Amino acid sequence: MSLFSNIGEQQHLSVEHNKETDNSTAETELLHALYELPLPTTQQELIELNDELAGLEPKFILQWAHHALSKVDGGGWMSHPLVQVTSFGPSGLVILDHLSKFNLLDTTPVITMDTLYLFQDSYVFYDTVRSHYKSPLHLTITKPAHIAQPPELNGDSVFKGFIHTRKEFEKVYSPTLWKTDPQYYTKVTKLDPLQQKLEEWNAVMWITGRRRSQGGERGEINVLEFDSFPPDELDQRVKSEEGKGRWKLNPLAYWSYDKVWKYIRDNKVPYNRLYDLGFTSIGDEMTTALPKKSNVGDVIDERSGRFIGFNRTECGLHSHLQKIKALKKHKKDSGEELAVPELLCEKCIDLNRETFMETVRSNNLQEKSLLLLEFYSPFCGSCHEFAPILNRVANYQMPNVKVARFDITEQSIPKIDNQEVFQVEATPTLYLVRYNPSFHAELYNGKHDFVEILRWLTEKGETTGSR
Q: Which of the chain's termini has less CB crowding within 10 Å, N or C?
């Protein structure tokens, strides 16, 4: 029987928020009925609970969650079973305002992730939020994690603390990690710091502002979800038992973008002034733009301005090597041998640590000749897609041009005179090496296209020949 049947067929109860925090009699009865609902223990119970929560206003959902989590033994004074995680977008602000109105902020800390690459207006808005909600607000701002990379594939990543400035971040990783390895960038700037804090607080449930109307993978989300902790594929610092996980609450799952903004305006909720400039979703400076119109009339895709500029034609080096490491361990545990895929390049010179310097640095590379050098991994899907193009370049037999490649999977990238000349953040990466009259290496930044590469090599050959 439906929960609402127990309180007088209140299925269509939908009371808009106002400045009063006292519940009406009907609302009080509804809350009392909700408080009888425990966290589900089976998939069927989760389905039935979501059927009930789908028709409720966020204020009821949040008060139910707060009550249900108050019965959980958190395991110490540092425990916070219920946490809000937000980037202070419109949806997160609506939830934050609800928590404040119904006196839940004092026991529900708020986490936001500072990637160090946010807009200046977003940093200013931190102070706006603190000023508006004042003492009940317990705001934690995480910083990117400093993960030391292993010197070889079998080494373990080491957590060395947190990074507090862009300069330090770019020294530890690179200025373009966001572009060359977006998965790893997200891991060290958001996922690892968030998981560390949730683990530290023994969080049982975290609140998000995700909505179905945002589309994509969010189009079918429910109010309550259970996220199982994934296997340790990327050598995550937070290690949890298999089958364990954490609840994720989406109280605005059924709200539209317009409804979110109506609430903000009606309740005078402060918001980031960038939204007045036309932005509909705000993240990092380098990956946020004004939204694009969809193909349906003049409707704007709310999140179309996010995550621009990512290079999807490369495999990010850090996350790629970690995946291979996990794959090797899995094969070893299964008593199997990891088969190395073959990338055909008939006229490529295959280099290793022993032959690298001989080919790249020695007299094998004569004056006015060029060496196109690829750093690659046979396990990288983008390298497989690029292999026929590289093979075609090698077979084209341009005058004074040799093509070589170096597998970075289990070999560190060689230095030249103890200098890290070759900066490889993703695979495939191409360099042009020449002596004219001394050693010189130049990174190729163009498209991985046969014609584009030939044009580049021709231009460089003409430059070399004219000197």
A: N
What is the token pair recorded at 458? 């021709």
Length of the chain: 467
pTM score of the predicted model: 0.66
- Residues whose CB falls within 8 Å of the CB of residue 158, separated by 6 or more in sequence, listed in order: 147, 148
Structure-token match 């000349």, residue found = 421
Query: What are the tens digits of pLDDT across the range 414-437?
Result: 888 778 788 887 788 999 988 766
Residue 256 to residue 48: CA distance in whole angstroms: 23
Contact by Cβ (8 Å): 269, 93: yes
Distance of alpha carbon 69 from alpha carbon 206, whole angstroms: 11
> Any idea what the Cα angle at residue 262 is, between residues 261 and 264, rounded to 5°?
60
Contact by Cβ (8 Å): 30, 24: no
Statement: residue 82 has pLDDT above 50: yes
Residues whose CB is less than 8 angstroms from the CB of residue 8 and which lie 6 or more positions away in sequence, other chains included: 29
Q: Contact 250/211 with Cβ under 8 angstroms?
A: yes
Around Cβ 296, how many Cβ atoms within 10 Å? 7
- Taking the C-alpha atoms of residue 454 and residue 370, their distance in angstroms, rounded to an integer, is 12
Structure tokens at 89: 């977008």
Split at pLDDT 50, 70, 90, the class of 197 is: very high
Q: Which residues pair with 370 in a beta bridge?
A: 401, 434
> Hey, what are 240's tokens?
């949890």
pLDDT tens digits for range 233-289: 333 333 333 447 899 999 999 999 999 999 999 999 999 999 999 888 898 998 888
Q: Which residues contact 137 (CB under 8 A, 6 or more apart)?
A: 100, 105, 110, 129, 130
Q: Is 17 exposed, middle or buried (0-12, 13-18, 19+ CB in 10 A)?
A: middle
CB of 123 within 8 A of CB of 272? no
Asked whether the beta carbons of 104 and 62 are under 8 A apart, the reply is: yes
Which ranges constitute the DSSP H helices of 149-267?
A: 166-172, 177-180, 182-186, 192-200, 257-266
* Residue owning tokens 């708020």: 110
Contact (Cβ atoms closer than 8 angstroms) between residue 112 and residue 137: no
DSSP output for 433-447 = EEESSSEEEEE--S-
pLDDT tens for 134-172 read: 878 999 999 999 988 654 444 567 888 999 999 999 999
What mean pLDDT is reported for the chain? 81
DSSP 357-373: HHHHTSTTS-TT-EEEE
